[in-house]
């Protein structure tokens, strides 16, 4: 595994039948050869991304006991 930069995968290419094969090749390379990637052009509104970041920071500011109340081990479907 050798790379000089983190692959940036343009998700909008997956929505067009003529560019989808190239998208899949790029995705396959990023996942199998590099192991991680950036995704661009997701179609997710900037306001929603900002809101998720704000809520994530608020979660990590909670006291530890509050965070433990919602850990996956407390969910009945968790194996």
Helix share of residues? 40-55%
The gross shape turns out to be elongated
Mean pLDDT: 92
Assembly classification: single chain
Describe this structure in words.
With 79 residues, the chain is mainly alpha-helical. Helices cover 47% and strands 8% of the residues. The chain contains 3 helices and 2 strands; from the N terminus they run E-H-E-H-H. A two-stranded parallel ribbon has the order 1-2. Strand 1, helix 1 and strand 2 form a beta-alpha-beta unit. The longest helix is centred in the last third of the chain and has 16 residues, at 46-61. The model has no long low-confidence stretch (mean pLDDT 92).
Highlighted features:
79 residues; two-stranded parallel sheet; elongated
Please provide a brief summary of the model.
This protein is mostly helical and 79 residues long. It has helices spanning 20-34, 46-61, 64-69; strands spanning 8-10, 38-40. It has a two-stranded parallel ribbon with strand order 1-2.
Describe how the helices and strands are arranged.
Blueprint lengths: L7 E3 L9 H15 L3 E3 L5 H16 L2 H6 L10
Parallel strand pairs: 1-2
